[in-house]
Every structure is written in structure tokens, then in C-alpha cells.
Amino acid sequence: RLNGRRSKNRMENICICAVQSPFVYGGAEILIETLRSELARRNFRTEVINIPFKSHPILDVKKGCLLWRLIDLTNFNDLKIDLVIATKFPSYLVKHPNKVTWLFHQYRQAYELAGTEYSALREDNGQENREESSFRESLWQIDRKALLESKQIYTISKNVSNRLKKYNQIDSVPLYPPPKNQEKFYRGEFGNYVLSVGRLDPIKRVELLVEAMRYVVPEVRGIIVGRGPEKDTLTEMAQRYESGHRITFRDFVSDQELFDLYANALCVYFAPFDEDFGFITIESFL
Fold this sequence. Notes:
Blueprint: E1 13-20, H1 27-41, E2 45-52, H2 58-70, E3 75-76, E4 79-80, E5 83-86, E6 99-103, H3 130-147, E7 152-155, H4 158-168, E8 173-174, E9 193-197, H5 207-212, E10 221-225, H6 231-240, E11 247-250, H7 255-263, E12 267-269, H8 279-285
Parallel strand pairs: 1-2, 1-5, 5-6, 6-7, 7-8, 9-10, 9-12, 10-11
Antiparallel strand pairs: 3-4
């Protein structure tokens, strides 16, 4: 339910605040597309404000925070913006008198990923330096201030809500997003392949599947669908383990191919580190 009353004479104007990594398309982008589509279907005039964001080094993270904080979304060319919906870090730093946050995730390197191999806030020895530690502590305060400006705070999962409560002492309500095209998923036969779907990032831990394929029976194959910086590493690993001939890497598949792959998989592999929500889990059960 949206805050504020809609005008009887015109459509309510809503801006969705999004963060984009160029050439990256995943769960967050699907969520934004679906949200915009659903709002438009309900006759709201909706625009997505999409700003590129670099997650490291720290100076660029600070620039991204400042950029969102300085944006004025109250009106454009005398067009009043009635509502802004913030999503993931740092979009919720935007100022607006009627801001609602649907939190995808915060800057995870400063929270639950701090001190892990998945955090950019560490040196080669795995330890934070003084600047990184200071930035992390400051960011907790910045997030708390900006998020509490929201009229309502929702998250995409109970896991995200738990983090928000643990680190920022902020209560929120999980609002689970439905999978895209959920009506098109179907059940087929159990095939002879293990399916992995998603971006090939270290935090997704797809290397565990590649390694595990060394130990499965020869009849079982692996199909890995996705792009990302780990693609070459995973391919080389498969060749080194002499299981490359049983693992197929697919950069892209059509929607219908993806439905078919899910429907006929022996099982679906999904083992990221402390995932926010995970469309893959939901899709694999449809």
C-alpha cells in the first residue's frame, strides 16, 4: 500500500531509485522491472532513476553516497514527484518527504561480509586498515540516518530484515517478491544434469559445484548458466579436474530454454554465501 492519497485529477508520479552496474543483469534488475511494470499496470506514472555505482575503492563508494544524497527528486520542471521508492545501497540516501524503502541489500562489505574473503574492505593479508574500519563504522551511522527518513521500510527477505535489525537497530517488514514469469514454469522429467543459474561471482560459490562434479557418476552432467568475472576461472578449474567435458557453460539462454532447463533438471545447485533472497531457490520449486 502506497503512502499518501492519490489525486482524483491526475496520475500519481513515482520514482523508483535504482543502482546499476553496467552490463550486469540479475535479480535486482528483474525486481526493478517487475515493480515498475506492476505500478504502471495500476495506472501510476512511474520512472526509474538508475545511477551507476562502483563498489570499490572506498573513494568511489563515498562519491556514490554523496551523489544520491545531493539529488533533488521533489519535482522536475514543475512536475511534482509524489513518492520515491528506494531499493539497494546507496539509493536510499536520497532525500524526499515521502520516501519508502524496499531494501534489497546494504553495502554488504561493511556488514555481514566484513572480514570475509568476499569483502573489498580488506588488504592482501585479509585485515582491514584504519581507513576501511573507520569508513565501515561511519557507514553504519549514515545508513541508519538515511533509512529512518523512510515513511515505511520493507525488505525483500527475512534475512535482510535480520541484518538491518542486528547492525542498525531498525525494524522492517519483509515483502517477498514473486519470480518473474512464474506462471510459465512447469514440471518435467528428472534429467541427468545438475543446473546452476546466476551471475558468476565469487560470492555465488559456483566453484564448489565444479569441484563436486569430479565425484559424481559419469552419467551426470553439469550445466552452468550465467556470466561474470569468475567465468574463466571456473572453466580452467573444470579442465584441470578433467571434468570439463561434462560441464557446459552457457552465457545466455532464452526464457523458454530456462524454463525447460529448470523443469528437467536432476537437481538445482544454489549455494551462495548468506544470500539476500535468492530467486533461484523459488524458481527451482515451481
